[in-house]
């Protein structure tokens, strides 16, 4: 009975109903679209690290320059970690795994080649292995074999089963990889075993570390400890990229609950005001209902039904509009520094997707606001005597 009567009342007072429904819809759109966009920014910042099997990428600055005449060498400004430093980093609190690699630059007559020596069974090695698009990945027994990045291979007419010459040494190509989305932050042209890279570059050690930690919440603490080990250590993570784009996602994380609270408070006040004015216009109707035997409970349930229906309609409309806005936006992109060539950046793109969890969360919050408004208005209205309602007209 209440629902049918509520539908009739809402349809009779279309202006008031439309105002309340649109108010809720606008608030829902603001909540869902802002949450979707900023969640995508947060995901995009950490995507390069997730796809490279790490949470933090660690390098070390070097004051002494390398031999600029050498055809193959450690990149300018990069230092090599010794065994003591590797042990110290691996033993830090919250550090679960350290994947070692050696980045080399090879300059020859045909152009520039970036090389990375990796440990195949490390988290970073497994991440690179997941990019294989042709042939197979290298194993610990594949000394003398390499895999090549697919665009580099196409440009240089290299194929699986063929050879590539680096610093006068010939290596057999056993696979090709397509670098994972966003992982160009640490991409190379050629991947080989770490010992092969060390021998090729005449280097003992590693110059790039991929660090896995127990929780991203401990990222700042780990970076502080790394700096304590050696001030020359450079730690790059999702928060580093966040700082480069104005730390939008960090601000969002810090003030998300406050923003949601403010929007819900605004929703409560507007919905309360709109419905309170509507009930003032209906005091005669309410008096008539009271005179024919409607109890305080009957009136309370009726008013609550109307406000809840408005909320449901407004929320559904808000979700529909939000989907349209998100589809029209498509994705968000951020610029991340490339670790291979420090002057370059790579674009990390993250598609926007409405989260069912966010929809459920905000429905509960908005519905709770609706119930609060219903309770306050219904109790207040139902408590008024019929004579007072009629005298107030």
Keywords:
393 residues; alpha+beta; 2 domains; eleven-stranded mixed beta sheet; two-stranded antiparallel sheet; 13 helices; elongated
Measured as a percent range, the helix fraction is 40-55%
Strand % is: 15-25%
The total of helices stands at 13
Residue windows where pLDDT falls under 50 for at least 5 positions = none
* pLDDT averaged residue by residue: 79
Number of domains: 2
Order of helices and strands: HHEEHEEHEEHEEEHEHEHHHHEEHH
Task: Indicate the overall shape.
Answer: elongated
State Rg: 31 Å
Describe the sheet with the most strands: 11 strands, mixed
List how many beta strands DSSP finds. Answer: 13
Could you walk me through the main structural features you see in this protein, from its secondary elements to its overall organization?
By secondary structure, this protein is α+β, with helices and mostly antiparallel strands. The chain folds into 2 domains: 2-46 and 247-391, no CATH class; 62-231, no CATH class. The chain contains 13 helices and 13 strands. The strands form 2 sheets. Strands 1, 2, 3, 4, 5, 6, 7, 8, 9, 10 and 11 form an 11-stranded mixed β-sheet that branches. The longest helix is centred in the first third of the chain and has 38 residues, at 14-51. The chain is elongated.
Quick recap of the structure?
This protein has 393 residues and is α+β, with helices and mostly antiparallel strands. Helix content is 52%, strand content 20%.
Topology (elements, then pairings):
Layout: H1 2-12, H2 14-51, E1 56-60, E2 72-73, H3 83-90, E3 95-108, E4 111-118, H4 123-129, E5 132-135, E6 145-149, H5 150-155, E7 163-166, E8 169-177, E9 190-193, H6 194-201, E10 208-213, H7 219-229, E11 233-237, H8 238-244, H9 248-281, H10 283-291, H11 296-329, E12 331-337, E13 345-351, H12 356-382, H13 386-391
Parallel strand pairs: 4-9, 6-8
Antiparallel strand pairs: 1-10, 1-11, 2-3, 3-4, 3-10, 5-8, 6-9, 7-8, 12-13
Helix pairs in contact: 1-11, 2-8, 2-9, 2-11, 2-12, 9-12, 11-12
């Amino acid at each position: 009975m209440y629902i049918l009567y509520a539908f009739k009342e809402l349809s009779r007072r279309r202006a008031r109903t439309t105002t309340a429904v649109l108010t809720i819809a606008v608030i829902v759109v603001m909540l869902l679209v802002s949450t979707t966009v900023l969640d995508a920014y947060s995901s995009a910042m950490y995507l390069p690290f997730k796809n490279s099997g790490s949470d933090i990428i660690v390098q070390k600055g070097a004051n002494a320059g390398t031999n600029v005449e050498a055809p193959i060498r450690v990149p300018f400004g990069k230092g090599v970690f010794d065994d003591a430093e590797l042990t110290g980093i691996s033993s830090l609190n919250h550090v679960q795994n350290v994947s070692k690699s050696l980045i080399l630059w090879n300059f020859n007559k045909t152009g520039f080649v970036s090389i990375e020596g990796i440990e195949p069974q490390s988290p970073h090695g497994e991440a690179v292995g997941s990019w294989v698009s042709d042939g197979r990945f290298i194993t610990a027994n594949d000394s003398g074999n390499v895999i090549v990045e697919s665009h580099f291979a196409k440009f240089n007419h290299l194929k699986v089963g063929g050879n590539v010459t680096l610093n006068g040494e010939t290596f057999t190509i056993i696979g090709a990889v397509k670098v994972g989305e966003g992982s160009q932050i640490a991409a190379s042209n050629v991947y080989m075993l770490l010992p092969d890279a060390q021998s090729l570059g005449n280097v003992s050690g590693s110059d790039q570390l991929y660090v896995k930690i127990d929780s991203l919440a401990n990222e700042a603490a780990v970076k502080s400890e790394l700096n304590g080990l050696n001030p020359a250590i450079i730690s790059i993570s999702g928060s580093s990229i966040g700082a480069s784009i104005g730390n939008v996602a960090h601000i969002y994380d810090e003030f998300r609950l406050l923003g949601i609270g403010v929007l819900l408070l605004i929703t409560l006040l507007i919905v309360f005001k709109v419905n309170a004015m509507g009930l003032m216009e209906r005091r005669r109707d309410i008096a008539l209902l009271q005179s024919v035997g409607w109890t305080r409970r009957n009136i309370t349930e009726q008013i609550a039904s109307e406000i809840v229906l408005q909320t449901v309609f407004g929320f559904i409309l808000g979700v529909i509009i939000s989907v349209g806005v998100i589809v029209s936006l498509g994705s968000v992109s951020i610029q991340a520094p490339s670790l291979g060539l420090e002057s370059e950046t790579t674009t990390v793109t993250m598609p926007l997707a409405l989260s069912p969890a966010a929809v459920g969360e905000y429905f509960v919050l908005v519905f709770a606001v609706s119930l609060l408004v219903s309770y306050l208005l219904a109790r207040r209205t139902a408590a008024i005597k019929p004579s007072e309602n009629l005298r107030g007209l």
